[in-house]
């Protein structure tokens, strides 16, 4: 069942940190045009990730003994919010920092923690997520990719799809079937850390309408993994995945994918003194929606800061957040279309064009809307 989501503000102690991050980003991104910043957390730039690592801003929530900063979820929320609002190119380290590191910290062996967590904190190890599979739709429990135990470790065969940044990543945390059959559903599933440089691993990027290749197919053909590739307990993969998804769905990136476009449009409106009825109505709708969702997202950070796992609550915020993320390009496009005599801004139109093409994927990543609403219904006891 869903617990009460207590609305809590970010403690004032983090104001100085926010100001520090904002000053850094103003300097680092000053020459980056809006159409590039509009890629938000999908922008890939390992050098930028290393600059954050040099400032101690990766692995904020990881313990200091593993190379992290030993800070809480509020610190990471503030950093994430500023990075996303500015459109910083953070996707190189994003998955590792957001969920792979915390997952390894929670379920990994001491050897896994000592090896992977310092590398994540230094932007030396980039991770992708191996969950979805071809021909399974959004039915994650029906996966067929199999890991068979051998004398030396594991042999992997199968494939994954919709794998963000697999072509750039060093490792994948993959959900595999280690026993039973697909009909067994949640039983017999385990997670393994797969080195993507191993023989037998093939990565094929998928080009989207915007000309980018964020997603990939990944194929495993008799891939030999060592015994210590298993993370957590064999057969507990389903519970571990759900804990991991709470990290994925709880962050502000589920609200802010269109924020650079919104900022660019507001600057355009101020510059040309545009504030008619269409503009006011669209802005009011976006701001009111974002304000509520931001408060809910901060409350999720509060739960994580207290060591809780708000899986269902995060699913609700992700589902509703996807709606506003997809609505922002549409609303701004409608306003611009209703004012054909207004001056043209090339940078704004490029950012809008990019987001209009990318926005359909917002309701795919992190779980489709239909699957999320099924999870919410179960959390409410409705099914």
Plain-language structure description:
- It is a single chain.
- The protein has 383 residues and is an alpha+beta fold.
- The protein folds into three domains: 12-126, Orthogonal Bundle (Butyryl-Coa Dehydrogenase, subunit A, domain 1), CATH 1.10.540.10; 129-235, Butyryl-CoA Dehydrogenase, subunit A, domain 2, CATH 2.40.110; 240-379, Butyryl-CoA Dehydrogenase, subunit A, domain 3, CATH 1.20.140.
- It has helices at residues 15-28, 34-37, 46-54, 73-86, 91-107, 110-121, 237-250, 259-271, 277-305, 311-338, 346-358, 369-379; strands at 127-130, 146-149, 153-160, 171-177, 189-195, 201-206, 215-226, 230-231.
- The relative contact order is 0.13.
- The mean pLDDT is 90.
What are the defining features of this structure?
alpha+beta, four-stranded mixed sheet, 8 strands, Butyryl-CoA Dehydrogenase, subunit A, domain 2, 383 residues, 12 helices, Butyryl-Coa Dehydrogenase, subunit A, domain 1
Q: How many strands?
A: 8
Q: Tell me what the CATH architecture of the largest domain is.
A: Up-down Bundle
**Sheet with the most strands?**
4 strands, mixed
Mean pLDDT: 90
Q: What is the chain-wise order of helices and strands?
A: HHHHHHEEEEEEEEHHHHHH
Topology summary:
Layout: H1 15-28, H2 34-37, H3 46-54, H4 73-86, H5 91-107, H6 110-121, E1 127-130, E2 146-149, E3 153-160, E4 171-177, E5 189-195, E6 201-206, E7 215-226, E8 230-231, H7 237-250, H8 259-271, H9 277-305, H10 311-338, H11 346-358, H12 369-379
Parallel strand pairs: 1-4
Antiparallel strand pairs: 2-3, 3-7, 4-5, 5-8, 6-7
Helix pairs in contact: 1-4, 5-6, 5-7, 7-10, 8-10, 8-11, 9-10, 10-12
């Amino acid at each position: 069942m869903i617990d009460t989501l207590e609305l809590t503000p970010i403690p004032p102690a983090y104001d100085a940190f926010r100001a520090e991050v904002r000053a850094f980003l103003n300097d680092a991104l000053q020459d980056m045009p809006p159409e590039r910043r509009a890629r938000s957390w999908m922008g890939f730039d390992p050098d930028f990730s290393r600059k954050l690592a040099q400032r101690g801003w990766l692995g904020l929530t990881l313990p200091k003994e593993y190379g992290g900063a030993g800070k809480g979820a509020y610190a990471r929320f503030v950093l994430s919010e500023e990075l996303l609002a500015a459109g910083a190119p953070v996707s190189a380290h994003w998955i590792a920092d957001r969920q792979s590191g915390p997952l390894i910290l929670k379920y990994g062996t001491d050897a896994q923690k000592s090896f992977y967590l310092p590398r994540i904190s230094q932007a030396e190890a980039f991770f992708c997520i191996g969950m979805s599979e071809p021909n399974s739709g959004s039915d994650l429990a029906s996966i067929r990719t199999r890991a068979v135990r051998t004398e030396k470790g594991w042999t992997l065969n199968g494939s994954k799809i919709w794998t963000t940044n697999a072509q750039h990543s060093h490792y994948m945390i993959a959900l595999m079937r280690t026993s039973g059959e697909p009909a067994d559903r949640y039983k017999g599933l385990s997670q393994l850390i797969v080195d993507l440089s191993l023989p037998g691993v093939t990565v094929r990027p998928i080009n989207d309408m915007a000309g980018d290749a964020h997603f990939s197919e990944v194929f495993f053909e008799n891939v030999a993994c060592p015994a210590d590739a298993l993370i957590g307990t064999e057969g507990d993969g389903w519970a571990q995945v759900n804990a991991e998804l709470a990290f994925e769905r709880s962050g502000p990136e589920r609200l802010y994918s269109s924020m650079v476009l919104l900022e660019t449009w507001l600057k355009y409106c101020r510059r040309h003194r545009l504030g008619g009825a269409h503009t006011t109505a669209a802005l009011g709708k976006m701001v009111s929606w974002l304000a509520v969702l931001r408060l809910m997202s901060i409350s999720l950070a509060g739960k994580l800061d207290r060591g809780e796992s708000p899986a269902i609550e995060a699913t609700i915020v992700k589902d509703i957040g996807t709606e506003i993320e997809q609505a922002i390009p549409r609303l701004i496009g409608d306003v611009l279309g209703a004012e054909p005599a207004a001056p043209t801004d090339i940078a704004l139109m490029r950012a809008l064009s990019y987001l209009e093409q990318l926005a359909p994927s917002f309701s795919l990543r992190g779980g489709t809307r239909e699957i999320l609403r099924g999870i919410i219904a179960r959390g409410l006891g409705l099914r």
